[in-house]
Amino acid sequence: MNAARKHRHWHVETDADGIAWLHLDKADSDTNVLSREVLLELDDLLDELTRKPPRGVIFVSDKPGGFIAGADVQEFTQLQTEDEALEAIRRGQGIMDRIEALPCPTVAVLHGFALGGGLELALACDYRVAEDDPGTKLGLPEIRLGIHPGFGGTVRSIERLGVLQAMNLMLTGRNLSARAAKRIRLLDYAVPRRHLHTAARACVTRPPQRKPLPFWLRLLNARPLRPWVAKRLQREVAKKARKDHYPAPWALIDLWVRHFDDRRRMLEAEAASVARLMTGRTSRNLVRVFGLQEKLKALGKQQDFRPRHVHVVGGGVMGGDIAAWCAMQGFPVSIQDREHETLGRVVRRAFDLYRKKLRPRRNATAALDRLMPDLPGHGLRKAELVIEAIFEDAQVKRDLFAEVEKRVPDDAILATNTSSIPLQELTPALERAERLVGMHFFNPVAKMPLVEIVHGPDTSPETIERASAFARRIRRLPLPVTSTPGFLVNRVLMPYLMEAVVMVEEGIPLAIIDRVATDFGMPMGPIELADTVGLDICLKVAENLTAHFGGEVPGILRDKVQQGRLGKKSGEGFYVFRKGRPVKPAPEKGYTPPTDLQDRLILRMLNEVVACLREQVVADGDLADAGIVFGTGFAPFRGGPVQYIRERGPGQLHALLESLSHSHGERFTPDAGWRKLIETASEAGAEAQDDG
Ligand code: NAI
Known about the structure:
Blueprint: E1 2-6, E2 10-14, E3 19-24, H1 36-51, E4 56-61, E5 66-68, H2 73-78, H3 82-101, E6 106-110, E7 113-115, H4 117-124, E8 127-131, E9 137-139, H5 153-161, H6 163-172, E10 175-176, H7 178-183, E11 189-191, H8 196-205, H9 215-219, H10 226-240, H11 247-259, H12 263-278, H13 281-299, E12 310-313, H14 317-328, E13 333-336, H15 340-357, H16 361-370, E14 371-373, E15 385-388, H17 394-407, E16 413-416, E17 436-441, E18 450-455, H18 461-473, E19 477-482, H19 489-505, H20 510-520, H21 526-533, H22 535-549, H23 555-562, E20 576-578, E21 581-583, H24 597-614, H25 621-632, H26 641-648, H27 650-664, H28 674-691
Parallel strand pairs: 3-4, 4-6, 5-7, 6-8, 7-9, 8-11, 12-13, 12-15, 13-14, 15-16, 16-17, 18-19
Antiparallel strand pairs: 1-2, 2-3, 9-10, 17-18, 20-21
Helix pairs in contact: 1-3, 3-12, 4-5, 5-6, 10-11, 11-12, 13-25, 14-15, 15-16, 19-21, 19-22, 19-24, 20-24, 24-27
Residues 313-319, 336-339, 342, 389-392, 396, 400, 417-419, 441, 443, 537 line the site of 1,4-dihydronicotinamide adenine dinucleotide.
């Protein structure tokens, strides 16, 4: 091969067959992204390739991790106006058009991640080959950032895959394996790594025959059928995303319905739509949440802690699932309990989880092999991490830790999953308190992405970093919090749940209470959530928190627990459950709910977040937002509670709290922390005015 001129991010090699290989290796970065500079260089290269077309053009990435991970999200946030955004998108779109227009065969060679703009570039090529490997992940995940593909990807994916597969890819934002992508015609070849380049070259020298889309799939794109198909797509979308909260999926469907007849027009409309979405509130906030997620992941990168053996004590609801999850993520795990039967249940539950989540079957078997029932606790001897998840009783836990410390290696970390006991109450049992840390998982472990990393006054920074690193290793997000009652998530969630219960006492229909919360954007209403978590657990947490912070636990909650109405697990709580789903009685005809319900629910939560910030339960507002979004599902399109406070204005919310405290009681008294937020906001406002 002979190498032609070098750019900063790209270099071109022309091989003996006259094929130009365009290598992307973005400077100063582990990952290829389509930054402005990368695109401008490519544009420049395309000048030359258009002037003097080679025999073929093949795009490859020199990064071991993957092809191209997408557009540059950081640059995205710097685009202030819709016009600026439109210009940037048109530039990208224009480059993809030029690739498509090259008069020679073009091929993209994909390995690792080929996502978003990266896959759009591949779609602009005539052919795509990818490595057949579990690490290959192809997708158009833009919808997760509140936009849709904007570099021609909406048009080209529908042309290539048909509307059903393309919309499925774009509306869900999910990743496909190479084999799945080959099945839906996204790839021409899925081959082992050693054959990748041969396959790419073959696409140029002996272009593969490609079957056209079946007639019925093309028919779905016909003008008279599009509205009918769109209705079906919209119905699916409506189950997950309201138009006013998440406009992107709706805009995407609309784009296709209105413009698919006219390619040029659809491309123009695609760019305009992304520019509008990208500068809108939802996308801004979703990009923020994406950044918060990266921030939490980064907290797990300060150390490289990969325990050779993990030992979990307590095989109940939490311990069993924590052990199963850790084994699923590749760690050898022993699980100890006092009872044989409990361990049997742990293994059975783990097997169900693996069967659902792991393919092929042998991966499920391998995960099960890593999970070792261990009644006597032999695993302690070699454990580098012990996670305790036994009864919530300080004395029982102290006794256990005293015993555990005698048996584990010197450098082992001791973690407790306690949800309410301050670490300070456990340390007296230990010789070396600096290695005790909380790892507070949420139920269900396999679904909830957050783990609060709880540190007491004695916990060493190294222990916190190691626990965070382990959380990241098992694909959970670590959030460092202080060892104060309820930590962050339960402390903030509980006032919201309790306010909902007060509303029940006031006679507000259950379904209405839940609806005002889902209208706000919560994934589930508070009454349904309390029933799902279990009313006994809610009562325990509420009692613990009121013991520390004052306030009252609503009597109706105690009554329900006394009557054995514990929620979903007992078949009845506030709701009656049928087949695991709550039956929600409709409110009486003509019922008009009070107008302040939503504010009452949300403001109790916000007030507690402000208190946590003042007490520095978490280090800053970003981490508070991250914790609440990933720990409770708080409306991601609102960017988190602190972001929501900024948007509505702390002064206004403070006034609202005061007025609610007059009408509904002391529980709404604004926390002292609001003052600081109000001052910061007014300083920022003054600065913005100065700039203006
Ligand atoms: P659970 O009652 O379901 O399980 C506790 C298990 O520990 C039982 O299987 C019991 O046999 C075993 N056990 C008790 N003492 C033991 C000992 N000395 N040695 C070995 N095994 C022993 O309890 P759950 O709900 O799993 O809670 C465990 C811990 O996790 C508690 O500290 C709880 O506060 C915390 N937690 C619970 C959450 C939940 O939603 N249930 C959520 C987050 C934390």
